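CO-FOLDING WORKSHEET

Operator: S.A.
Ligand of interest: flavin-adenine dinucleotide
Run index: 246
Mode: holo prediction, single chain
Checklist:
[x] sequence pasted
[x] SMILES validated
[ ] output reviewed
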Amino acid sequence: MQTIATPAAGGGVVLRGRKCFISNAGVADSYVVFAREEGDDAGGRPRFGAFWVPGDAPGLRVTPIKVIAPHPIGAVDLEGVEVPAEHRLGAPGEGLKIALGNLDVFRVSVGAAALGLADRALTTMIEHLNSRRQFGKPLAAQQGLQFALADVATDHVAAQLLVYRAAAARDQGRASVDQPAMAKLFATESAQRTIDRAVQSLGGLGVTVGQVPERLYREIRALRIYEGTSEIQKVIIARALLRPGK
Ligand SMILES: Cc1cc2nc3c(=O)[nH]c(=O)nc-3n(C[C@H](O)[C@H](O)[C@H](O)COP(=O)(O)OP(=O)(O)OC[C@H]3O[C@@H](n4cnc5c(N)ncnc54)[C@H](O)[C@@H]3O)c2cc1C
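OUTPUT RECEIVED:
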């Protein structure tokens, strides 16, 4: 993390740096900015703070970014943004804890979003297999397509169970780091497979601009990247399993 919070008069800080790929940049009325603070902690590790910054703060500038599916997103430049002491969130040095706590919640909600996209893909696929006739019978009568449908439908239910398990654990105050990671990893990866299968099942229609599977195909892609990529979820899961004393 390269954005720096420099102490200022009155207990506030001045923020300098650049944040890439910030969802809702340019649309949001306010931002939570994580920045490196002066000095290291007792263990010699860098300290980070969290700060609330209004969207119209002098020195805050947004450059929009276009991604493959509609998503308001941009880079945020912080050029000497003054933040008063009362806009600090948590205690000095607690920023990383706040950031990681948020990721645990949002990983589950990204998993839930993937469930919605997969659900729509499955419905569209079933409707098409039942209605499209090819070689004298509905596509739904082809065992190869039935097997493909069974595979993605089973994946979908497994993804639902992982997401609901992680959400319930969080609600009951017994959240762990690996449950949200497993939920996000499996739900987003399996949704991608389900949507790809839906595209394939629609044949040429599946890649036609404006068709539902084509839109889902673009929309699902970023979910495997934000709130931690699939690879990083695997790092988290493995680390939890290999923890000493586990
Ligand atoms: C649509 C969208 C919205 C976003 N919204 C936000 C937002 O609101 N706020 C915010 O802070 N960020 C946001 N991001 C940023 C997002 O969290 C990062 O893009 C993501 O964490 C990946 O980081 P990176 O792009 O720097 O890729 P890199 O870290 O450069 O990774 C590139 C590739 O290498 C792999 N890789 C990296 N390290 C390892 C490793 N140790 N082991 C194995 N593989 C590895 C990654 O998995 C990835 O596949 C958003 C991104 C997108 C696309």
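REVIEW:
Residues 97-242 form a domain with the Butyryl-CoA Dehydrogenase, subunit A; domain 3 fold (CATH 1.20.140.10).
The chain has a mean pLDDT of 96.
[x] output reviewed
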